[in-house]
């Protein structure tokens, strides 16, 4: 069975990119539209992973082949962050996650106790901010899965995640990280032999996963940023008569139309920054973690005794 394990909807909130965060939201695709797009592209199961909310996933929870998920912003010491894809949860678990997400060790322990499948998303990406070497050890020591086929990350960045997961012994998953309908299900996860939702989720819990689909590219990033901007323009145009705040936002977007040709320049800067960030941190991680004397060990969170690597 196949499922895109990382996809956004209108419920994800304001866009988290420089400059663009003043103009619109992360995504303008309704939960139902994402569901239909994913099923139309061959996904057997559908979930939504909006940022720190399950509202979108609950909107489609009554439809066949769905389960409730979210992308959790997990805070680390020093004002650093990682993103976790957390799947098959209920409202009570979401509320507890919202409290624990500021304490990575407690959050990992809770998810393990609840047998909730989860992964660390785009670990080598700069989009969540600065990173230190220990953050990689915390993430790979606590998360049972790593996202190694992200549909918005370049093949190089995905390869770093793949190699890190292989060396440490963390199975890989895939997801599109789609913020527009055009990118939904471009990357996804396969659990071979699963015949229904329950067997697919059990496969996630046991790491019986195969990341599939395509990596991202500069062209895809540029196209999606342009689509998000267009979605924001249309949304604010519709709401411009609803109040002064919406009218001001729409006026700002109108004033920004002349800079639209600069979107490829902005996305080129983001793309190159991502590549440089990933390469630098991969080299640091490789030098510190993959030395012969340390390769058999899997670092535990916060320096705890390493647990055995997952055998595949």
Q: Can you tell me about this structure?
A:
By secondary structure, this protein is an alpha/beta fold. The chain has a single domain (2-219, 269-303), classed as Alpha-Beta Barrel (TIM Barrel), CATH 3.20.20.140. Helices cover 42% and strands 14% of the residues. The chain contains 10 helices and 9 strands. α1 (31-40) links the parallel β1 and β2 (45-46). α6 runs parallel beside α10, α8 (218-239) packs across α9 and α8 (218-239) packs across α10 (263-289). The longest helix has 27 residues, at 263-289. Mean pLDDT is 87; it is low at 292-312.
Total strand segments: 9
The CATH superfamily title = Metal-dependent hydrolases
Oligomer: single chain
Q: Write down the overall mean pLDDT.
A: 87
Sheet with the most strands? 5 strands, mixed
Number of H/I helices: 10
Point out poorly predicted stretches.
Answer: 292-312
CATH top level? Answer: Alpha Beta
Report the span from N to C terminus: 19 Å
Cross-sheet strand order for the largest sheet = 3-4-5-6-7
Q: In CATH terms, what is the architecture?
A: Alpha-Beta Barrel
Hey, roughly how much beta strand do the residues contain? 5-15%
User: Structurally, how many domains make up the residues?
Assistant: 1
Derived structural class? alpha/beta
Rough outline: globular
Using only C-alpha atoms, the radius of gyration works out to 19 Å
What is the helix fraction of residues, given as a range? 40-55%
Q: What is the fold named in CATH at topology level?
A: TIM Barrel
SSE pattern: EHEHEEHHEHEHEEHEHHH
